[in-house]
Structure formats: C-alpha cells, structure tokens
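Entry for the shared binder. Reason: the reviewer on the internal report wants the predicted structure included alongside the sequence.
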Amino acid sequence: MMFTAWVSFVASTAHAAEDTIKVGILHSLTGTMAISEAVLKDTVLMLIADQNGKGGLLGKKLEPVVIDPASDWGAFAAKASDLLVKEKVAAVFGCWTSLSRKAVLPVFEQHNGLLYYPVQYEGEESSRSIFYLGAAPSQQSIPAVRYLMSKEGGNVRRWFLLGTDYLYPRKTNQILSAYLAVEGVAPEDITSIYASPHQSDWREIVESVKAFAAAGKKTAVISTVTGESNTHLYAELIKQQIDASKIPVMALSVSERELRSVDLGKLAGHMAVRNYFQSVKSAENDAFIKMWADFNGQRDKTTNDAMEATFIGFRMWAQAVSQAGTADVNAVRQAMYGQRVRAPSGFEVVMNTNHHLSKPVMIGKLEASGSYDVVWRSISPIKASVWSRYLPESARRIADWTFPWVCGGCIEPTYKDW
C-alpha cells in the first residue's frame, strides 16, 4: 500500500514537472546592486504571472526559479550552474554588471543555456548563449557625446569620464576616448577617474571635476557610476552646488529609480541617456506602467530602462517558444532572430542575428519631480554595433550567428564555398 502511494506520488511529481516550463531569475536582491537589480526580479515575476494568466506557453505554466547572488561576482557562476544543471531552466533573465555577465558566460556556453541580459554594456562581446537587451556604445554613450558636442547639447569641448572601477566603465571610456580623438579632441581635454563600487565619500572626486572644468572650456561629466554609489555621488553634486547648466552630468547607468532618495529639486538639468524613459508618451508605455502598478498593488509606479529591456526580452522569448513549438534552447535560439515587439518606448524593436536589439536612443533631462523630460531621440531604432569601429583590434570584427558567419567576433565567414 505504501509502495503504491509512493509510486503514485513520484508519477504525479513527474507529471507536474512536465506541465511546467522553468524560468530562471538571477538578480542580486541584497548587497550594493540590489538598488538596481531587485526590481528586475519583480519585473520577471510580473511577466510570468501575466503569461500564466493567458494560459502559459505551449499549454504549460511557467515556473519561476529565483536565486540571489547577493552582489557577489564570484557567486554568479555557481548560481548560474545551479539554474541550468539542477533546476534545468529553459531560460535565465539576469545579471547587471559586466563582471557578473562575464562570470556566467562560460557556464551558459558549457551547458548550452540562454541568458537574457537587460542592461547597457561596453560591447566587444557576442555569445551564442546570450541575448543582449540593453544598449551597446553605439546606442548610448556615443550618441550622448555627439549630442553634448552639438549646439543643441551645449557645445561641450572638455570631458570628465567618471566611472565605477570595473570592466564596463573602463572599456566604455576607452571607446569614448578613441571616438573623441577621431573628433579632434585633444588628450588634455579628456580625463578619467574610477571609484570603488562601495564609494560613499565623493568629496575629493567632485572637487576634481570642478578643478578640471575651471580650464575655461565647456565641460561635461560622462558618468558610468553604478549601483548605490549613485545616491552618494548625486548627494555630493548637490552639496558642492554643481550647476547642470555649467557642468552637466550625463549618466549612462542611472534611471528614475536610483535617485529616489536624493533631493531631485537640486539636480534638475542633469541628464541621462537611455533607450526608454518612463515619461515616454505611447499607448504601449501607458499599458506597461499600469501593468507594473497593478502587479505591486499600486505601491510602486516607477518604471525604467532595464525593466523595459526585460519586458522586451521576455516577450520575445515567449514568442520564440510559441513559434518553435518547444522551449528547447537550440530551437528557441533560432526562433529569436527577427522577433519583433512593439516596446513601451513607442518603437518597434527587433532582435538581430548579432544577438543584440535595434533600439531607439533617448536623452532625458532631469526634472525637479524626478522624471526625465526627453529632449532628444533618434528618428528610428539604431542597430547595435557590437564591435567598435573606433578600436583598431575590433574595427573589422563581425558578430553574426547565421550562416555563413556563425560567430561572435570573426573577420571573415566561418564557412566558405571552395
């Protein structure tokens, strides 16, 4: 009798597993990056609940598997392995910093997993196991500098490149420095400073910004500071009365959410460059904001760029699974190419064969209310340039995962007709 019950339990458990598709969520819910990442976990949970409310996928319910790497870059690889090997998830939505993405990349390639990465990054990478949902430099940092150099953007001629001390800021600033050199900017008009990921005292750094700007030429700060450090940085900008009309700060890794604890009335005029702002006027954005507010019981109505990227990636993954008729990684990967979503940005975005999206670029100016007023946007979505043409070692590289290339960084087709 007990044996029969045990067999019955095992059979019902196996049947339940067959009736679900597991979705991994790999975001820091504690530590220095929780301020940015925790909301992305909730965004995926919202999208899973929404999809399940529509009947799931392929007649199966989606089952979230949430793991917290706790802002510890060394923990990301082991946690990713748990999701792929132990939990056997069909896809993972996660990571924020480039250090965490680099840590999990070999794990996803070894176990043939799929990671949907939702944050702007430095480019110079294309993996068959990662779909990059955020901006590459050609879709963010370079358009931002171009704008600031223009009459409309203030005719900036001097550049203070300020970042957190890790891969993304350093590589982004290397590309920006090469671009500025091509534009004729002298080396003495470019400087860089990198701060600890745990930086809380910004007094000396902001003093260095003021000293650099005192040379007489219009100066701007390009900030690749990430995580909690932004709240301390912007508090110091207020303390030292950095006037946005004289020394504008253009942020690459700040959204409406990171500055909610700062006196925004004293930061009005500083800028950010993203692919989406909550202030965008579109029917798709109205629906997105309502979806988010409804999901959390109207306690939080603030959306941001990384949340929109997660939304796009999840919708494309769901479409690819439906199109392929299976959640199998190899089939879904192929079905991802050409997927289109009408995004909250108001633009139709497409996934290209380089595993990157074509996305619009927007520059927002911070209002005292805490929202960003869009002061410039691209006419249409811009296709990501994965490898920078401003770096000699990258200029000829191609990222294309379809025949005959099938590579993330070759300079000629992998397959040839002889």
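Summary line for the report: The chain is about 35% helix and 20% strand.
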